[in-house]
Amino acid sequence: MKPIIKRYLRLRLLDNNILLFGENSIAKNIQVNDVLTRYVSLLDGERTVSEIFTILHNEFPEITVKDVEEATEKFLNENLIEDNNENKPDYLSDEELTRYDRQLLFFSMFETPNVDRYTFQKRLKDSKVTILGGGGVGSHTLLNLACAGVGEIRIVDFDKVELSNLNRSFIFNESDIGKKKVSSLEKKIKNINPKVNYEFIDKKISSKQEILGIINGSDFAVLCADTPYLKINKWFNEACLEKNIPYSLAGCSEFHGLVGPITIPYKTSCFECQDYDQKDIFSGSDYIVRANKRRTAPSFVPIISTLASLNSLEIIKYLTQIQQPSILNKQIRINFMTMEFEKIERPRKKDCPVCGDKVVKECSVSVR
Q: Do 326 and 311 contact (CB within 8 A), yes or no?
């Protein structure tokens, strides 16, 4: 082993000989003396532990091999150093290692003695995600997950690009107007990350049965479509539960955004558990009288891209298992005018008509 300080860590020597590794919540303080300061200076990946001992012993004769080995073990356990001599995994190409270099650094913050950063990336590479809806939230979700290296992504939409779409999506441009969204997305996203396997489906969803066929084989599904209003949420929820596929939602209304919850079938709350107003699902005469047929949800790109990014991060947490998602049985509500974030509890209901007949189990990220 040739120990080297992790690349993302900033080192600062504070007063009272306190050496600060990193910043914010991951920062670690270590009380240092001349010996430990010299030891840290030798953690450059050029020397083995025994070579570090030799240098230290020549300068500080009281230092033993055991002292250096224990210090190295402590730094490893604190996730402050790594082996500069490690073998790169054969399941990631050199191109992938370079492409994902910065997020591998991000993943390295969550490494353990049993799981390294490359394993986290492999979990993404081995995952298949289906996205229903290729508009604002859907296209940004596609962009996030493709950039991160999710191995297979299937996206479904039936609509064409309109000029009004361009205020809330980075990926479309004026040359796409009048073209099918899935065709435009296919052309653009393959140039962004050709390492991902994509499937583009030009289809309008009109039943739960259609969703069952589309999400089949997925490790995760994302609903970014809102038509037909609320009906598609019910179809999607029931289909994902039937196929035992975890899913998440994201969307906005006026200047409020909602992310989540992530639903893990029969372990966390489903759509039916979450007390939405279901009245608009049905099209009785009372609904027709009260409905505003002109109603269109206001949105623009800062809101849409933020919601998609937050949702994508939670999805990546789930797929990689770097950390338990923050939106299990919870929903993030954002007031974009005041920038206030609120977590709303969305607990699973034992008497839920859709998922309540199953055994409630303690939820954890290990459910995959």
A: no
Q: Is 118 exposed, middle or buried (0-12, 13-18, 19+ CB in 10 A)?
A: buried
Per DSSP, the residues of 272-314 read GGG----GGGS--HHHHHH--TT------HHHHHHHHHHHHHH
Contacting residues for 150 by C-beta, under 8 A, at least 6 apart: 124, 125, 127, 128, 129, 196, 319
pLDDT greater than 60 at residue 368:
no
Angle between helical axes of 231-243 and 208-215 (0-180°, round to 10): 50
Ramachandran sector of residue 5 (left: φ over 0; alpha: ψ -120 to 50; beta: rest): beta
Buried b / exposed e over 137-154, threshold 16 CB at 10 Å, is bbbbbbbbbbbbbbbbbb
- d(CA 334, CA 345) in angstroms, rounded, equals 14
Q: Which amino acid is at 47?
A: R
Rounded Cα–Cα distance for residues 96 and 317 (Å): 20
Q: What is the pLDDT of residues 243-265, one digit of tens each?
A: 999 999 998 888 899 999 999 99
Q: Is 295 exposed, middle or buried (0-12, 13-18, 19+ CB in 10 A)?
A: exposed
- Residues near 13 by beta carbon (within 8 Å), at least 6 away in sequence: 19, 20, 32, 37
Strands (E), the chain: 3-5, 11-14, 18-21, 28-31, 81-83, 128-132, 152-157, 197-202, 220-223, 247-253, 256-259, 330-335, 340-345
pTM to 2 decimal places: 0.89
